[in-house]
Specification:
- By secondary structure, the protein is an alpha/beta fold.
- The chain folds into two domains: 46 residues; 218 residues, Ribonuclease H-like superfamily/Ribonuclease H (Nucleotidyltransferase, domain 5), CATH 3.30.420.
- It has nine helices and eight strands.
- Strands 5-4-2-6-7-8 form a six-stranded mixed β-sheet, sandwiched between helices.
- A hairpin with a 4-residue loop joins strand 4 and strand 5.
- Helix 1 crosses helix 3 and helix 2 crosses helix 3.
- The longest helix has 19 residues.
- The radius of gyration is 23 Å and the shape is elongated.
- The N and C termini lie far apart (52 Å).
- About 2% of the residues have low confidence.
Length: 280
Amino acid sequence: MPDNENPINIEKVKRKLADSPHRSSRRLSRELQLSRTTVRRILVDDLNLFSFKIQIIQKQSTVQKEKRLAFAKLIAGKVEKKEIGIGNIDWSDEAHFHISGHVNKQNMRNWGEEKPDPLDDKPLTQEKVTVWCAVGYKRIIGPYFHENNEGSRVTVNGVQYLDMLKSYYIPTLRRREELGSITFQLDGAPPHIAKVFIDFLREKFDKQLISRNCDFFWPPYSLDLNPCDFYLWGYLKSKVYSNPVPETTEDLKRNIRHEIRQIKEETLKKVSENILTRLQ
């Protein structure tokens, strides 16, 4: 009798999943000392289960959905008319990287007969670094770490964010001779929309701004339209916690810098092109 048809093996897999439906087929294989092929056949053929990828979603109101649709139509229309180039937009954001590790949602699965409610895990420690990047066509500006002169992480507020733009982002654009051609995107987080902050950005970018209180209104709950969120952060968090494993925040920052340098221009080009597909 094949292992996957053995009632004893089927019952063992069933009991393991009853304890925790988040076990991967690899882990089940290891714990039950069965081949991974056998485990997957039991899961799919005998127990009729599916592997659901865990996704974190945010509920949107009708008004929020309308704002997203209006933004997508506006930007896609501007690109189609060649009034703005999708390759001339810098998409920016910050993310926290915890020294304790991360939740790799790409590897999160839940075996069951029905799709589960969204789940999330919280880091066990607050020791972390806060990273800012701007993803553009074929290049990334960053990483920039929000920290004080002693190298300690600081909370991002309007003053801190404005200082980053003046001391780092704008000089980088000038050095690359890109300042007059870039449209700058930033979300509607409070540090990004203070009047003094928006006034500074209007002086540098005129109307080529995507954010709240700007001509191109960035819609709420639109992480899926920002390549920092739908590509960069997830990719980095799948890389920076190994080879070597970071033991300090300095190790973690070094890994982040290294992995960003390894991202190929062709990959970023495809990411930029994917934005238009998402808008459409």
